[in-house]
Sequence to fold (163 residues):
Amino acid sequence: MPETDSLVPSEECMMRPSWDDYFVEILDIVKTRSTCLRRQVGAIIVRDNRILATGYNGAPAGIAHCEDTGCLRQEMGIPSGKRQELCRGLHAEQNAIIQAALYGSGIKGSTLYCTNKPCITCAKMIINAGIIRVVYKEDYPDEFSDKFFKESGIKVDIYSQMR
Fold:
């Protein structure tokens, strides 16, 4: 085996992902914990390139999951983005914010990465939590969150448009 100069970076090393790419890729692992029958969603809260909290959509701790009880929204024919109160689960963004609070991680000034655009309820929580940037991969049918993010000055990036 030929000797290599350890100070010369390998081609593989030079292909490191950007921080946004890195955190968006981690979302695909986080969302696999979801127990929602309709959509798996993951969220990560990051500050200074360090993960502070993660969350995925599902029922509160100690409550039966939709995979055990069935999906009320599906049974009632409720379209995505409507009547969110008729659901057993919390959204991934809500769970990430709650996890940060539960374990004492201050998230003011952080970035929230999520698989889908946050709904209006999550947008309001994100604003009040002091999160300053949101990066999401896929759209979600809730036009009100866009208005709130714009009014609050939170920077919102759609991951597919960043590439």
